[in-house]
Amino acid sequence: MLYQGKTKDIYDKGDGNYLLKFKDDVTGTDGVFDPGANTVGLSIEGAGRAGLKLTKMFFEKINQAGIATHFVDADIENATMTVKPAEVFGKGVEVILRYKAVGSFYRRYGMYCEEGQELDSYVEVTLKDDNRNDPLITDEALEMLGIMTKEEYTLLVDLTKKIGNIIKEELAKKDLELYDIKFEFGRVGADKHVALIDEISGGNMRAYRGSEYIEPLALEKIMLAE
To answer: What's phi and psi for 55, nearest 5 deg?
Structure first.
């Protein structure tokens, strides 16, 4: 084992690849799911396998679109995913793509917007730092602190919007609307190219059907239904 995370554990397979073990824990507070939370808020039986199934589906579609990821393959029965090793930016960054003013965006900027207001594929980057509540950071600060270059930041934003469109279109096929989603990226391979890493599951997005919020496990069932 290399690392124990909130929703996944990471192992070195010994063959050059890593193994991600998906857990049934999801982020939130006081038993309420929140994809932007820094703590495990609840455990949902079957969430790990369901999250992996959706992650596998999305990563395969993203790879087919010619976008680099760390995904190799997945073992649904054992809730594990084989991935290429990735070097995170700094100690880790999270990239949030927002289509609606909800969650922490609305809490920060509620004086200037209405809850649920349309946003134009707005991209935010935060540092993975639980002690400081994952602070927002600008492209200038990322470069100044040696976390990533301006070129990497520009590419990261472009990839985020392209991946978001793929996810959004897939959800729309099930009559679902994507409000926001959280991605992680890293440097992969000998050339250290920027690639999507981690997961894409119900636990890191907000989706609605009309005015009804769809819980992570329900979302995964809807998306994976034939």
So the answer is: -60, -45
Q: How far apart are CA 211 and CA 184, in angstroms?
A: 28
Alpha-carbon distance of 85 to 50, in angstroms, equals 23
Alpha-carbon gap, residue 110 to 88, rounded angstroms: 32
Rounded distance, CA 172 to CA 65, Å? Answer: 18
Rounded-to-integer distance, Cα 179 and Cα 190, Å = 35
DSSP string, 145-206: TTS--HHHHHHHHHHHHHHHHHHHHHHHTTT-EEEEEEEEEEEETTTTEEEEES--SGGGEE
Place of tokens 């994507």: 178
H or E, element range at 14:
none
pLDDT tens per residue across span 28-58? 777 676 666 667 767 777 888 989 999 999 9
> Which residue, chain included where needed, has tokens 């890593």?
18
d(CA 104, CA 95): 13
Per the structure block, which two tokens stand in for 105? Answer: 């965006």
